[in-house]
Amino acid sequence: MTDTAKTGPRLREAARTLATWDAAIIAVTAGFLIVASVSVEHFGTARNAGYIVLDLAPILLLALTMTLIVTTGEIDLSVASTVGLTGAAMGAMWNGGMALEAIMPLAVLLGAALGAVNGLFVTGFGLPSLAVTIGTLALYRGLAYVVLGDTAVADWPRPFTGWTLGRIGESAVPNVLVPLVLLAVICGVLLHATPVGRSIYAAGANPVAASYAGIAVGRLKFWLYVASGAMAGLVGVLWTLRYSSARADNAAGLELTVIAVVLLGGVSIFGGKGALPGVLAAVVLLVSVQNALRLAHVSTEALTVVTGSLLIVAVLAPNALVALRTALRRRRPTANGRTA
Amino acid sequence: MNRRRLTLLTAPILALVLASCSGTTQGEDQGGGPGGDASADPNAEFETGLTYAMLPKSVNNPYFEASSAGAEAAANTLGGEFEYTGPSDASASSQVSYIDTLSQQATDVLLLSANDPNALCSSLEQARAGGTVVVTFDSDVDPGCRDLFVSQVDSDEVGLTLLEMAAEQIDATGEIAILSATANATNQNAWIDVMEAELASNPSYADMKLVDVVYGDDEDEKSFSETQGLLQAHPDLKAIISPTTVGIAAAARYLSGTEFKGQVALTGLGTPNQMREFVQDGTVTEFALWDPTALGELAAYTGAAAASGIITGAEGEVFTAGELGEFTVGADAVVTLGPPTRFNAENIDDFDF
């Protein structure tokens, strides 16, 4: 962690705030899992854990690349529409008689291309990512309807749909956990242990300073959008096979959940701050809270209210934390100006 | 560097080409069908103490609230426990989570109105493997994925009634449009097919022309703005048929506030409580629906009969659904409630749902 030291006290301060937020959200998640296992019937079973993994898979995968993008200070609102469009394209190719083994990588490539369009508009033309990806959110969803219309493609082969729901051998570990862990580790290492990751933080904290420091901010962001698109393509494949239904409205509205967990995980919407472990914990927390409330026969209305409140807390708490620290520092200035 | 990039690019493309030569394509794999190897005992008693769960397309929909009231009454009569639960949005993926939860809780009878005919199948399979009897009502899934389906009416009868009501109100002349639920809604699409076929084949509808089908997704606001869009896009529109309770209410609200009130006929499927004010103010002349309370009640009795071994889902089996009377299981394990009821200014005050 010698590199963080070089970037000065501001970043270190941020890192410290975050470390606590990260730890807090992980602690809250762990605490919730323990309490729920004890107090909610059927919650702490291997079977239920499997359901939770299946439910969180699409959110978690999209949140991985979303974390990288939000940390650079940008956003990608088009991810759920990309899931829908790649799913719809899968359906069209399947109807066209293509082999599923070819369709799946093509869907991921299509996702990458759709992400590249976002990247091009944001970095090439310098447009605000919020505006660009709101546009492609509508555009990609619209194209999904153009591709597949009002129909659903549902005759996916059993071995493939079965894999998405299945478990590894005799164990209770769901198959989808394998790509989940793999991709989470890749993104985690990329963000926290490589020069690329340091560039991502630098670009988010201060893009001007970052480019003076020799970081190709535009190119970096472009490739992050490509990665986000490819990830959405992969989720499109998983979603279609899990529900064995390719429809133009697949995953509609999921982008909000993804952004919510990224913020709940402690990533700053203004960029430059954030860490992946917190985001992973936030995904687990959100999905298992919903699962536990359903198991506890809590009504849907209450469930929505609880989820909403959780997210408001997520946005308020880190800011409140920073404000608290500032106040404390003003009260107890030490000799060298640092907080205790 | 360039050559390396080229290799990097061509390798996956080559792999793709190879994969498409030897891969899995459409039509290779299909299986399943309704089970039913157990034998029925028509003289068995209804079991008491069963747990019933009703899972609607979405909660906070008056139609399903009414079904739930009927099912709950039946469950109470049969000495069982009843729960009404479901997602707040009408999407297939959110229903899956609820099915998983219910099958973990080992619910005896699941009464389901499906948002997608296929997406729920693997979850339903697991639930059935755990001993849950799956009865769909209102909107079916693939017959291989459930035990029985309780149909509100014959698809043909709904489509024909809707068309007949519209024709009566516009003297069977002019442009008509349909405001439906979601684009994948199983039963709405079946009725639309019936209406399209009848328009094409029945000479008494020769002067009526279906100009548009739009989807309000069973959301009030979307249905409202789709109605607005229809009237803008088709200035000569004479009638709107909305085969969904959410759609017809939103369309009636729009019409009642514009100059189209009384000019453009609106009919479809609605609940009397939702539509009463629009019938009274002259926006709507006549609409139809079956009694959703009776539908829910029949679904619960059907589930109880299957869970008690009185029926297995084989064609021709007979069971008694309390005060609703005797019902016979039809082909594909379908039980049908009866013909739709028409509501107009004269009879609407006799109904409260």
UniProtKB/TrEMBL annotation, chain A:
Q: What are the entry keywords?
A: Cell inner membrane, Cell membrane, Membrane, Transmembrane, Transmembrane helix, Transport
One Gene Ontology cellular component: plasma membrane
Superkingdom of the source species? Bacteria
Q: Which GO terms describe its molecular function?
A: transmembrane transporter activity
Q: What is its main location?
A: membrane
Q: Which residues cross the membrane?
A: 21-43, 49-70, 172-191, 222-241, 253-271, 302-324
Q: How is the protein disposed in the membrane?
A: Multi-pass membrane protein
Where does the UniProt annotation locate this protein? Answer: Cell membrane
UniProt protein name: Autoinducer 2 import system permease protein LsrD
Automatic annotation (TrEMBL), chain B:
Question: InterPro entries this protein is in?
Answer: Bact_Solute-Bind_Prot2, Peripla_BP_I, RhaS, SBP_2_dom
Q: Where is this region: Disordered?
A: 24-44
Keyword Cell inner membrane applies: no
- Listed GO cellular component terms? outer membrane-bounded periplasmic space
The subcellular location is: Cell envelope
Q: Which ranges carry the Periplasmic binding protein domain?
A: 53-309
Any idea which GO molecular function terms this record carries?
Answer: carbohydrate binding
Q: Name one GO biological process term.
A: rhamnose transmembrane transport
Check the UniProt entry and state the signal peptide residues, or none. 1-27
Q: Name one Pfam family in it.
A: Peripla_BP_4
* This protein's UniProt keywords: Signal
Give the principal location in a single coarse category: other
Supply the CDD domains for this chain. Answer: PBP1_ABC_rhamnose (cd20000)
Which ranges form a coiled coil?
Answer: none
Please identify the protein, giving its name as recorded. Monosaccharide ABC transporter substrate-binding protein, CUT2 family
